[in-house]
């Protein structure tokens, strides 16, 4: 495994991280989830990601239980706050009340005294940014949060948060978690340049485009049994990806991966890691074999000619 610094901090995260969205507590059986986390740890992955809303807290319980047998200093654990966790008017968002209560609920489910990274899972237009950042800053000062991050915020929202933190001398953002893959590249225009200028790394989710960049989905073929697209709970995000024009590009990318004697998933992850501002690519594995396959991407270096061929296909 290889490691990169997280933003302007001294923290080093593995270039491949393991997440629990749509898997642990949902479609993946508990023992399989634990064995997948164990495999990731054994392969040198030190960065693990979850969120309070993943299966309404069940993912946090599984991740916390699986990691509890390892020395706390040996891994980095991130969780998030924003999503709906109850039926009340204050059971969602980034208000002081919701952030405060949900951090403590997450720590209880995880069985930990602190989390390494705490993300604002989405932007909350109904709560002043200074209210949210001051609340998390309080948690940092209490030792319950080490680093502050956001997920899927716009460049303007991130810039506003940086200005607010500087104005009130609050802990600064050091990491952003956006959607980034060969088929989702919006961060290249503004988010990455902003991150480079302000010491904010990207830990990107869906680097394999919901599994489309594994090559398992074929034009005109039935959805593979047991796949994410075949799961009614998980496939709500995949309609735009399972189109013939996208799958044709995947076929063309597979030709490149065969020429390089690597898998298409390794090609896709290596393409992600070509970005210096990306600290880690966050994979979602439902079995140990998938982790073992994906971590090999850290040893793949893509030449400028290969990058050019990829760009031609994606264009």
Note the main attributes of this structure.
eight-stranded parallel β-sheet, alpha/beta, 15% strand, 10 helices, globular
Written overview of the protein:
This protein is of the alpha/beta class and 315 residues long. 38% of the residues lie in helices and 15% in strands. The chain has one domain (3-214, 263-300): NADP-dependent oxidoreductase domain (TIM Barrel, Alpha-Beta Barrel). It has helices at residues 30-42, 58-67, 96-110, 129-141, 155-168, 191-198, 244-260, 264-273, 288-295, 304-314; strands at 3-5, 12-14, 16-18, 47-49, 76-81, 115-120, 145-151, 173-177, 201-205, 278-283. β7, α5 (155-168) and β8 form a beta-alpha-beta unit. α1 crosses α2, α4 crosses α5 and α7 (244-260) packs antiparallel against α10 (304-314). The protein is globular and about 50 Å long. The protein starts with a strand and ends with a helix. The model has no long low-confidence stretch (mean pLDDT 94). Keywords: Ion channel, Ion transport, NADP, Oxidoreductase, Transport. InterPro entries: K_chnl_volt-dep_bsu_KCNAB-rel, NAD(P)_OxRdtase_dom_sf, NADP_OxRdtase_dom.
